[in-house]
Write a structure and sequence with these properties.
This protein is of the alpha/beta class. It is built from 16 helices and 21 strands. The chain is globular.
């Protein structure tokens, strides 16, 4: 419940959360009873009586009733957009051969949909088919009437049947366009309902808010999914806030591309979100590396070349190393790129392998490269990577903030940091590691603003049920 009192003060707080147990994670007292917020950031921490002196008649005051307040959780290994789009396309595995891909598409086409969209095939399966005609013929054998649209796992290779290509050629003729990009072609061929996208986005975001998440770094997306997501988000923004988390997008690269193209695409993604300030940004280049030459293989020289321009422009780099050789390669390349850092680039290597000590000793500054586990293709809980509740809390807050390149403003509740909190009825550290399997927040706060309140949500849900039962 919010209420105001006192007269306006020059240095008064915008919001005060009082009568709680606010986790500071300091070496001294771990909990204080109140926190004051101004301009979306933590103004001061302390006891409720002292903090109350910062209130004015315009200050919102929220009584936490003894609940526990932790830094807002950060999902640094999110697959948010994959979850958002998972029922909107046929997912293909990049390890599948040509026959398997065609069989899967054929099975999907038998559902009778006018448009069949599949995503994730390995573009190398088409190496033996050099011309567009040869490639289209493979899909025409499945269907000549339906529109078949296949996007490779690299996000840049498009494979169409003749029916789809005819649509693109007609648009080019009507628009007198010499060329249409892959992203433009996908928008022409695929008609997504933006309201449905926004509704599903809001539902996924609510689920995260219910568990105390206030920020996420999205991985394994592509330019098309990013653009559909952004457009639906901005369209919905006029009526409501479709996301209850700070969203940090990424550009995923898993093949050799022109380095300047990569950095230009990141700049373009970043520019689209500048008006949203700290609620959405695209500052991370996500690169997948393995030793399989038919998948995401890079030599050290190729990897350094792809990363170079993005590093020089200050973008963060997050490398998923899928084997030990690639882990060593990633460390060596990032260590060598440190001299090119002009702005504060953040270097992360995600892997299920450990860097050998003899390799670490050869590096100049391995301590400046953050290590974490590989991002799974499906959501997973933090407890599978932690031994204690303290470890889990650290991984979801301070460690995650470092991974996403926001260690100076997220991951702690302290003066000057964003006022992003997760409120729980119990002390998670006393409940043990299992409390982080599927945490249930009472309240979630971003920049001092309550974006989720369990009590209010339950009341609203009950009201909706009552209305639906009226005769």
């Amino acid at each position: 419940m919010a209420f105001g009192f006192r007269t306006r003060k020059k240095n008064s707080a915008d919001v005060i959360f009082t009568n709680g147990k606010v986790y500071t994670g300091s070496d001294g007292e771990d909990f204080v009873s109140a926190v004051a917020v101004k301009d979306g950031r933590v103004m001061v921490l302390g006891d409720s009586e002292a903090i109350s002196e910062l209130a004015s008649q315009d200050t919102e005051i929220h009584d936490l009733g003894g609940k526990y307040v932790y830094p807002g959780f950060i999902d640094a290994h999110s697959v948010f957009l994959r979850e958002l789009f998972k029922d909107r396309y046929l997912e293909l595995d990049p390890v599948w051969d040509l026959d398997t891909v065609l069989d899967e598409v054929r099975d999907k086409a038998e559902d009778g949909d006018d448009v069949v969209f599949a995503c994730g095939f390995n573009y190398h399966i088409l190496d033996d088919y050099e011309t567009g005609e040869e490639r289209r013929a493979l899909l025409d054998e499945i269907s000549g009437l339906q529109t078949l649209v296949l996007l490779a796992s690299d996000g840049f290779t498009l494979w169409l049947n003749t029916a789809a290509m005819d649509i693109i050629n007609q648009v080019k003729e009507d628009e007198e366009a010499d060329q249409i990009t892959v992203n433009q072609a996908l928008h022409i061929l695929l008609d997504y309902d933006e309201k449905d996208i926004a509704d599903d986005m809001a539902a996924l975001s609510l689920d995260m808010a219910e568990r105390g998440y206030t920020a996420l770094l999205d991985s394994y997306s592509n330019i098309f999914f990013n653009s559909v997501f952004q457009h639906a988000y901005f369209t919905a923004l006029g009526d409501s806030e479709p996301l209850r988390q700070r969203f940090m997008g990424s550009l995923t690269v898993n093949r050799k591309l022109m380095p300047q193209l990569v950095s230009s695409l990141l700049l373009g993604e970043q520019a689209k979100c500048v008006e949203l300030g700290d609620m959405m940004d695209y500052s991370t280049l996500k690169v997948e590396v393995c030793q399989d030459e038919r998948l995401s293989y890079f030599t050290e020289e190729e990897l350094a070349e792809v990363l170079g321009p993005s590093v020089e422009r200050g973008f963060n780099v997050n490398i998923d190393a899928l084997d030990e050789e690639s882990l060593i390669k990633a460390y060596r390349v990032l260590d060598g790129l440190r001299d090119k850092v002009v702005k504060a680039s953040n270097f992360v290597v995600a892997s299920d392998f450990n860097l050998p000590d003899e390799v670490r000793s050869e590096l100049t500054a391995p301590e400046t490269i953050i290590s974490t586990w590989a991002t799974p293709m499906v959501p997973s809980t933090v407890i599978s990577h932690c031994d204690t509740a303290e470890d889990a809390l650290s991984e979801l807050t301070s460690e995650a903030a470092a991974i996403v390149g926001k260690a100076d403003c997220l991951g702690h509740i302290e003066e000057g940091y964003y006022a992003d909190f997760a409120v729980f009825s119990e002390n998670l550290l006393e409940k043990g590691l299992g409390a982080f399997r599927n945490p249930t927040a009472e309240m979630t706060v971003i920049g001092g603003e309550i974006v989720y309140d369990r009590e209010n949500e339950e009341l609203a849900e009950m009201y909706d049920v009552m209305l639906s039962q009226r005769i």
